[in-house]
Design a protein that fits this description.
Length: 402
């Protein structure tokens, strides 16, 4: 019989958590309860708040004496983040659910993100709207809007709680017998303007027994790929689209942070890296472009995305940063340069065609990449040419076979 873990503040929201506990059990599953509130719970949990707090470095008594809500929340979050993965490994539960506002969500979410990919994890939260990156990160955590505050049982909250319970029970109650053939996993990065390249490479590798996972290089996509590499899921990387560095360096909206391009290098995973979409910085609708950029070469990609052509100086900075990251490599790495353009709109006749800008990018990489660690391959192609894509895919296979 499957067991669902329930995380929550059983002191201030005891009735709500007792409701979902009893509903889960009425559906034929077991429950395993973890109290993360500061005071005495309304029902006896399997794991007390003191156990959680001690994992975070302090006792509940210490926290209550200080009367510092922020410290209490931080300690319980830290403790649960350490405790929850251990309880899962011990087989205490198979999926986990929580309810809460900003406080409860900030305690439960970091711990849930530590659970393996595929473990059902749901939070019904007042914070499930807008930018939820701080809660979800790159995990498969599901946030369900609570609509009304998690403050009692009423005609609205009961419907939401029911749906959340039915969802997680369904996830654990139905298993498919379909077997997925295990193949070496390849991570590839793609943007709309590098889609043909990735499609060609993906087909080439699929035909030769590899499974290609495509990540949309929108900041979150790059972070998700880096996390999967670090957790050992990926055997090879086709990092065609390194455009997130444009946004990180210039100030666009799709940055993947300062650690992008580090995971494969540090893990020693074979990788083929290119310069896909390094001709563009991403902004939202046209009227959101910062004033200092309004006279630049702007391209309305669609109603919600405006692209800005990177300048010669910006390409120098981007090239230096990418070289710095590639030089960290502990494994087999190749840098493949498309000398006829880095995107679909960086070719002759297209709005971002820039010979001088691209030449600065390529020259900077040539000068700064450590040739003892990184092989540089230069092709007289646009990045979306079939020959370019298949050459990169073939190179990765060669690196993996070596």
């Amino acid at each position: 019989m499957k067991t669902i873990g329930i995380i929550g503040t059983f002191d201030t929201k005891g009735k709500e958590f007792l409701y979902i506990k009893e509903l889960i059990e009425s559906l034929g599953l077991k429950t395993f309860t973890i109290h993360t509130g500061g005071f005495k719970p309304e029902f006896e949990p399997n794991i007390s708040n003191d156990i959680v707090a001690l994992e975070g470095g302090k006792s509940i008594e210490e926290l209550m004496e200080k009367k510092d809500r922020a410290l209490t929340t931080e300690t319980l979050s830290k403790g649960l983040k350490k405790l929850l993965p251990r309880l899962y490994k011990e087989g205490k539960f198979h999926g986990v659910i929580s309810l809460g506002g900003s406080g409860g969500t900030s305690i439960a979410a970091p711990a849930m993100r530590e659970l393996p990919l595929g473990v059902p994890k749901i939070i019904v939260s007042t914070m499930a709207s807008g930018n939820t990156t701080q809660y979800v990160g790159t995990s498969d955590l599901i946030l369900i809007p609570s609509i009304v505050d998690v403050a009692g049982l009423n005609s609205i909250s009961i419907k939401i709680f029911n749906n959340a319970v039915f969802a997680i029970v369904g996830m654990l109650s139905y298993e498919t017998n379909k077997e997925v053939e295990k193949k070496p996993l390849i991570a590839a990065t793609m943007f709309g303007v590098t889609t043909p390249c990735v499609d060609y490479a993906k087909k080439y590798m699929n035909d030769r027994g590899y499974e290609v996972l495509v990540f949309h290089a929108t900041g979150t996509g790059g972070k998700a790929m880096e996390d999967l590499i670090k957790t050992g899921h990926i055997q090879g990387v086709l990092d065609f689209t390194t455009t997130e560095w444009c946004d990180e360096i210039v100030g666009g909206v799709l940055t993947a942070g300062e650690n992008r391009l580090e995971a494969a290098a540090q893990m020693g995973i074979p990788q083929v890296v290119s310069t896909g979409a390094l001709d563009m910085v991403n902004f939202g609708p046209y009227d959101t472009v910062p004033k200092e950029f309004i006279t630049r070469n702007l391209y309305r990609h669609n109603p919600t995305v405006t692209l800005m052509r990177t300048s010669i100086d910006e390409n120098k900075k981007i090239g230096e940063k990418i070289a710095e990251k590639l030089n960290m490599s502990k494994g087999k790495t190749a840098l493949i340069l498309p000398l006829k353009g880095v995107s679909a709109i960086d070719r002759e006749g297209q709005p971002f065609y820039g010979v001088k800008e691209d030449e600065m990018l390529f020259d900077t990489l040539r000068k700064n990449v450590d040739k003892d660690k990184v092989e540089i391959i230069e092709l007289e192609n646009n990045i979306n040419d079939k020959y370019f894509a298949e050459t990169a895919a073939k190179k990765l296979i060669d690196l993996m076979n070596k």
